[in-house]
Amino acid sequence: MRPRVEEVRIQGLGVIDEAVLVLSPGFTVLTGETGAGKTMVVTGLGLLFGGRADPARVRPGSDKATVEGTLVVDPAGRVAQQVQDVGGVVEDGELIISRTVSAEGRSRAWLGGRAVPVGTLTYLAEDLVAVHGQMDQQRLLQPGRQRAALDRYAGEDLVKPLRAYENVYKRHKQVADQLAELTARAQERAREADLLKFGLEEVERADPKPGEDVELREEMERLSHADSLRNAAEVAHRALLGDPMSSEQAMQDAVTLVGQARTAVEAVREFDPVLAGIADRLAEAGYLISDVATELASYAESVEADPVRLSVVQERQSVLAGLVRKYGQDTGVVLAWAAQAALRVAELEGDDERIGDLTREYEELTGRLTELAAELTRIRTTAAERFGGAVTEELTALAMPHARVVVGLTDTGDFGPHGVDEVELRMSPHPASPPLPLNKGASGGELSRVMLAIEVVFAGADPVPTFVFDEVDAGVGGKAAVEIGRRLAQLARTAQVIVVTHLPQVAAFADQHLVVEKAGDGSVVRSGVVALDRDSRARELSRMLAGLEDSELGRAHAEELLAIAAADKA
């Protein structure tokens, strides 16, 4: 079962206050007076399938525009599976899609009762609908669109090689960018490596040790104040132990005085435990003072003024200070910088090897891309011949019997995201005219028919369940309009076709005729959608033909058109 749009509800969109469209499986046509809101129906369908939300389309006085569609789908088909993948539900083969656009520009979408990003609707639409508004004719003139059209027609034959090409192209571009960066920065990298090497040589010559700068600073302080340190130690030693060469001070040193205090307390310690504890502490103090005095004597003997060593220390400290000033806060940081610099030098010197590896890979990828691009060109060339012939055949059926469409492939000379081919649709309106690009060789009406012919060709090669055309017959009249109606009816045999038209010749071929009616009370204009029966269709076609619903001549012509269309479809 092919999916199709069964019903569309539109609220607050443009001049449409509220409208319900019940659509037939075949060919549905929408007509109405200028300004009635026919294009808003196409806009609503576009919104339903992920089209751009324009807050300017929200009806004045409404806070939002809402479009809700009911689609008939196969519960076991691909579309139903995609809906289930995003958490939506398909009930009894019916899928509900909803889209709102607020007057402030916010847009929301629901799929099968589940809120989804608008992009999900766009992705789903690829399997459901092809919407062609009036701007799509201009899009068809873009080279990228024409290349995409040809690729779509080529079908499965192109899918696998194109995917392989795109993967190789992506890597080829990455390698090219890396090579360009490495090559452009070659001089800069060389300068960086030289500076790092110079710094590493400085550090290597100095050979600093962790914490060495701190040790040298302490040693320099000692050497610079050797005399003061020695004198202080000797004075302290005499205060503690006295000067053995002087009898006058014998009774004034700290050891003697503490000894006297201890002797006095020891004599009576047995009478009070508190005093006994003090005696013990005096004994400890005496021992401690003696030890300190001994250390002071030893320290005084060890401290010597050494100008030579001081000079050595000052020189070494100057060397380390230079390193610290350039490469870190202390010798530990300097050594860490040196380790990182060595790694960076290795990396910079390894760039030459890396450039060589990347160059070889680039050449291999270029060769592979050349092969794949040639394969794409071969497939496209074959498809272009078939595509041009098929579109030309369709144009013959659309009252352009002498027109010929060809698809030109030009080698751009450089790899692009989709190959090396530039695709251009060209048309010659008659045999004496050389094929020209569509924007030069086709009028507005002819371009409309070319687009319709392309869609008819696609319908046979890559069918889409629903086609929506907004004034595909623009700039066309007479016999050509009849042929367009006939071709749309033929397309509707295999797909659902919804067409907005102003031509009665096209409308006569529809299986279902809807009219967008405009009503106004002087200040407010509203539009609604009405389904026509056989008699109402004749009156509407008469209006479209003669501008008068009750014109006898117009009515007769309308009846004739309906009879011709019915006979043709039969």
TrEMBL record:
User: Which CDD domains has this protein been placed in?
Assistant: ABC_RecN (cd03241)
Gene Ontology BP terms? DNA recombination; DNA repair; SOS response
- Give the record's keywords alphabetically: ATP-binding, Coiled coil, DNA damage, DNA repair, Nucleotide-binding
Which top-level group of life is the source organism from? Bacteria
One Pfam family, short name please? SMC_N
Stretches assigned to the RecF/RecN/SMC N-terminal domain? 6-518
Per the record, the coiled-coil ranges are: 355-382
MF terms per GO, please? ATP binding
Instruction: State a GO cellular component annotated for this protein.
Output: bacterial nucleoid
Report if keyword DNA damage is assigned.
yes
Q: Which family does it belong to?
A: Belongs to the RecN family.
Q: What does this protein do?
A: May be involved in recombinational repair of damaged DNA.
Q: Which NCBIfam families match?
A: recN
Q: What protein does this entry describe? A: DNA repair protein RecN
